[in-house]
Design brief:
Distance between the termini: 47 Å
Largest sheet: 5 strands, mixed, barrel
Structural class: alpha+beta
Oligomer: single chain
Radius of gyration: 23 Å
Helix content: 55-70%
Strand content: 5-15%
Number of strands: 7
Length: 469
């Protein structure tokens, strides 16, 4: 029942959010998908869609301000730092959050500096607004020592993350905190850029990959305990999900992964058969109720489009049993799945405008083949080392295997994101190209043939490559 309700939410967004009207051509064919209910219950599906539209009207009562605005004042603080994006505030207007990018040297305005910026005023979940800064200047930048002190921060999650990863070497500790605990404060901007240029930025964002591996590992460990078993392990994991949310933070990718895990575990406890699309729709609705404007953010859209593509890809045939044919099959399927996720995210990667990253790492699907096993190995070995953080001397020994895996993962990202990085910049402005992409994605989701959907979904990339040439 969550799938038609989510379609109603998407249909209602342009009625309240001005920025959603520009994105409507990207997903309007998706709104024509079947509701997921039997034909005899078609009225229920349309009723749920109408309920989704009503939910948008109640949840988003006001329209956002339109156009670019200029804001100036004294810089007060950097509230949240994640990679290259930061949330800051001005002393004269503490109620207005400012979301901006670091400068080319990875620095922020110094405390008390004169700051001036221009950007779009967009709504937030509380009915207020935030400024998405496009360009900014400041009279003074912070020093490296000030940034290191701010990155160390007094936050509870930050202190806990540093305590749990103190057994890791200083070089790998920031990456361990980001990868294992979702704490990206203190992660060098150069590291973030290399992962981004290599097309591996998703590795640093806690998501379904991280949550799935953690729950699978925890289920295996609990299952071997006396009195554990599959049912007992699932019960413990279901109770542990809120604790994981507190530990990992409430980013859209974390919330999506844990909401989907809760849906699957509840259905398994009831003896039912969970449906992946319904789990994804439930996670999106939870995020909408929590922060409605998040549905228009590039990170949210990219995450959900890629997850939908993976759900479709999971329907494929079983692998062969022999080792070498199975290995070749796994590599081919991994590459095709990565290509499909990239094609599904093209509107966000190179679509242009506020809801786009404006860049695409062309070799990202290839680097993902090597990064996937290294990431899984780093996560498994790293999580196993965290319980030993309270034992001086033992913590470094327990963290050594995980640190080695992290070093290999970082070496891959620095190589792939450095001299071997092939990044495509630009945007495809024609709405007809994106409507064709959306029709291809709809055909793929509806279970159609793969050839024509693949051609339609790859059309924006082809247009951009031909236009750039």
């Amino acid at each position: 029942m969550f799938w038609p309700l989510l379609l109603g939410v998407l249909l209602g967004l342009p009625l309240r959010l001005t920025a959603a009207r520009a994105a409507l051509p990207l997903y309007w064919p998706l709104l024509l998908l079947p509701s997921g209910l039997p034909p005899k219950r078609g009225r229920l599906g349309w009723t749920l869609r109408a309920l989704g539209v009503a939910l948008v009207l109640l949840r988003l009562p006001g329209a956002p301000a339109q156009g670019e605005v200029d804001v100036a004042g004294r810089w007060d603080a950097a509230v949240d730092l994640r990679g290259e994006r930061v949330e800051g505030r001005l002393r004269a207007r503490p109620e207005l959050p400012l979301r901006l990018l670091l400068d080319v040297d990875g620095r922020l305005p110094a405390d008390g500096a004169r700051w001036r910026g221009r950007g779009l005023l967009l709504p937030t979940a509380g009915g207020e607004a935030e400024l998405r800064v496009r360009e900014w200047t400041a009279s003074r930048r912070e020093s490296p020592a000030a940034r290191a002190s701010r990155a160390a921060g007094p936050g509870v999650r930050g202190r806990l993350a540093r305590r749990l990863t103190r057994g890791f070497p200083a070089r790998e500790a920031p990456l361990a905190r980001a990868l294992l605990l979702g704490e990206r404060r203190g992660l060098p901007a150069s590291t973030w850029r290399r992962f981004r240029d290599a097309g591996l930025a998703h590795v640093l964002a806690l998501s379904g990959l991280h949550a799935g591996l953690f729950l699978l590992l925890a289920r295996r460990l609990i299952g071997v305990l006396p009195g554990g078993g599959a049912a007992g392990a699932e019960r413990v994991l279901l109770l542990a999900l809120p604790l994981l949310l507190l530990l990992w933070g409430g980013s859209p990718s974390v919330l999506r992964a844990l909401a989907m895990a809760a849906y699957v575990l509840v259905w398994r406890r009831r003896g039912g058969r969970p449906r992946a699309r319904e789990a994804l729709a439930l996670a999106a609705l939870v995020e909408f109720m929590r922060r409605p404007a998040t549905l228009l953010s590039p990170g949210f859209q990219l995450s959900y489009l890629a997850t939908l593509a993976l759900i479709v890809w999971a329907r494929r045939v079983a692998p062969p049993q022999a080792f070498w044919p199975r290995l070749r099959w796994s590599l081919a399927q991994g590459l095709l799945a990565s290509l499909l996720c990239t094609a599904a995210g093209l509107p966000v990667l190179i679509g242009g405008g506020e809801a786009s990253f404006g860049r695409l790492a062309l070799l990202g699907p290839l680097w993902n083949l090597a990064a996937g096993p290294l990431c899984a190995l780093s996560l498994g070995l790293g999580w196993l080392a965290l319980p030993f953080a309270a034992l001086p001397g033992v913590d470094a020994i327990a963290a050594a295997p995980g640190a080695l895996a992290l070093r290999l993962l970082a070496a891959l990202a620095f190589t792939a994101g450095g001299p071997l990085a092939v990044c495509l910049h630009g945007r495809v402005a024609s709405p007809w190209v994106w409507i064709a992409w959306s029709l291809g994605f709809r055909t793929l989701l509806a279970g159609g043939r793969r050839r024509w959907p693949a051609l339609l979904m790859g059309l924006p990339l082809l247009v951009l490559l031909v236009g750039g040439a």
